[in-house]
Amino acid sequence: MTSAYPQPESIGGLLAEHQSRLYAFVFTLVGDAHLAHDVLQETNRVLLETSERFDGAREFLPWALTVAKNQVRTARQGKARGRISFDEDVIARLADRAVERAEQQDSRLIALASCLESLHPKQRELITRRYEEGESVQAIASALGRTASSLAVTLHRVRRTLATCIEGALEGGTKL
Question: Which domains does the chain have, with CATH numbers?
């Protein structure tokens, strides 16, 4: 099975890959774009400085979100500014939910990668052309000598197969 994730060669690559998610997480907690930017920069600094503590066997994003949550806490303690103020319990609950969502998202991506591998090569090619390469249904159908409507039905069936496979994988089933 191939990994669902690009394999960056460094923490810097992982940071670059997850910047938008980290920013969204921090912004959700602080509610101020400027403060979120500052906290994100500090989070990046801490992640880089403590990169030797990162266990490559674990997922990067939950670890990074935990560091970001701690940086939000530090920023709030150091700067009691802003009109919106959340207590520590609210910040902790929001952060915990974001980490859970990230873990669920990661599990879904891993399941998707497995399920894509289990498809027939022609089905996988259709999915790749349509969703990774962004080809239109009409263009793919034309290249394959098929009608757009018949290809659309085929794509619908393949997507349904993938959805069933992913659900089975997430439930611990053996539908892979």
Answer: 1-110 (no CATH), 119-176 (1.10.10)
